[in-house]
Amino acid sequence: MRTIVYADGGCDPNPGPGGWGVVIQAPEGTVELCGGDPQSTNNRMELTAAIRALEHFPEGAAIEMRCDSQYVVKSVTEWIRGWKLKGWRTTTGPVKNVELMQRLDELAARRDVRWVWVKGHAGEAGNERADRLAAQGRRQALGLPPRPDIAPAKTPPVMTPTMTAAVSPAAPASPSSPAAEPAPRGTSIPVEGALGLRLARAAKQAGTTPQAYADEVLRLALDLGPDGLALLREAKARKMPAA
Question: Domain named RNase H type-1: which ranges (predicted)?
Fold first, then answer.
């Protein structure tokens, strides 16, 4: 049985401050997510909504992803194979929003996803709710207070150079390992101003968003663990390359 998911995003104006919203109609109850970016585009927010939705699921999960963006649906179901064969290029140049496309492709490849286009603003309850959550995410990106009539129960923080990074849930412990309490979705780590600016510059150099870059740094730090990070610090202090 597939879990029905609605994902939507947009900006006002475009480009400009944007938001994304996700409605996951899980068997145990509905899960709602939203977030935003103070400077984005409609297409980037639509892609981000789909990415955040898929990140919520473990590998192998069966999902029906319903989007009102033909750009997202056709990218994944029709265009992406050709782009990959051409080195992520189109007939006119590099694929736009390539880092988001690559992340979406990576997530979708590890899950059983059926992509469905739905007409926007046509009265489909899940799509209408995702649209309202995207509007809430945009308000969050602008630093405006949430509207209580449309706010989800828990809203993941918006990633900006001076705000916070969201930590994804920890992977389930194996049966042979000690039980560990997973980090809840939306746990926030404060990023002070100077560090936030460094994060923004590094993300720009890497050709990605601050949130995507922060996520990758967090994954690397968790993979290395305390001992690995200590070795890296020692190597840096000695101005020697890490082994």
Answer: 1-139
